[in-house]
Amino acid sequence: MNRGSCGGFRLLVAKNDEAKTLLPIWVYTHDEFPAQPPLRDIGERLKFVAAPEENPQ
Questions:
Q1: Does the residue 50 lie in any domain?
Q2: CA-based max dimension of the chain
Q3: Does residue 16 form part of some domain?
């Protein structure tokens, strides 16, 4: 994986205030997504995070 323009990676997380946890859902570089992954794709990953028992690994 090529690094982004700053030489690092970006991490997108889901935050659960009640449980006081962060769950990584996407690691990407600026080369892959100049701004961020498409909202549609982020939404699909969040659905998976919201109901993990319904999503086989």
A1: yes
A2: 37
A3: yes
Q: Within a domain: residue 44?
A: yes
Per-residue pLDDT at 40: 94
Q: Which residues contact 29 (CB under 8 A, 6 or more apart)?
A: 1, 2, 3, 4, 8, 9, 10
Contact 45, 25 (CB under 8 A): yes
Question: Tokens representing 29?
Answer: 């570089």
Q: What residues does 23 pair with on adjacent strands?
A: 14
Q: Copy the structure tokens of residue 5.
A: 């323009």
User: Would you say residue 33 lies in a domain?
Assistant: yes
As averages over each run of 10 residues, the pLDDT of the chain (57 residues) reads 67 90 90 90 85 59
